[in-house]
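S.,

Sequence below, as promised.
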Amino acid sequence: MKVTRPFRHAGLKVLALVLAVLLWMVIAGEEIVERGLRVPLELQQAPAGIELTGEVPTTVDVRVRGGSGALSRLGPGDVVAVLDLRSARPGRRVFPLTPDQVRVPFGVDVVQLTPAAIAIEFEPAASRQVPVAPVVDGRPAAGFVVGRMAADPAVVEVVGPESAVRHASEAVTQAVSVTNARERVRETVTLGVLDPSLRLKNARSAVVTIDIVPAPMERTLHSQPIHLRHLSPTLTAQADPATVTVKLRGSRESLARVESDEIMAYIDVGRLGVGEYDLTVHADVARDAGVTHIDPSTVHVRIASVK
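The prediction came back faster than expected:
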């Protein structure tokens, strides 16, 4: 026959009783207060094969009651409203929100929940393949244009509500800069879709290749005067020949807008003294065109003192 020993572990039992009494005294001695909180709304158990559409609240307002100490210790995520979507079907559905659907710590009670119901629109889920459209930022160097663009992968699968998927035409890349580029640009960038109700099924990045090619049109400007830059006021200089022919490359529109006085052929003689030199000619263009050739590219310059 088993013998019952009521006083076995008596010390531990007494300690547990004392702790329970102390805890009760602490709780009982606290002032009971109420506080309004804005808490996250968590959606759970959504059936497969349907998608949410339109705006869905991400937070709800909850009024809670409890000891002042318990409420003061509440942190982010301690109180969460949970909406069970297992009964969702295509169409507009209204889901009630009750205090029982709010997770709270021990010692905290939910007094009020606003709104009392959430209306959500559902559609059948769908997916389709769409092309990837590279996005370009900036302009190539003068005299160059953007040529063929390609992305790898070239197509991706988008997923979402049926109506949004039906209207989806492309996925886009993060912008690839071609500013001042003179040769092919290749970059790995993030992929995305502009419609926030859609998402990519698998791919999250793509390798974008952009060819930078010479502009298709050329224009030749004859008898452009050579300017001698930074010549000391105590010196004189003369270039032989005094003019050059400048060839430009660019788009038809940019070349058509270039005026003769917008071409600045020049030689920098700022650090040169009296003497004779064979110097390289440079040219600036005010508009979006590039200089491809200067003829002659080198001229003879004679520098003398001012008499």
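The chain has three domains: 32-115, 125-214, 217-305.

Coffee later?
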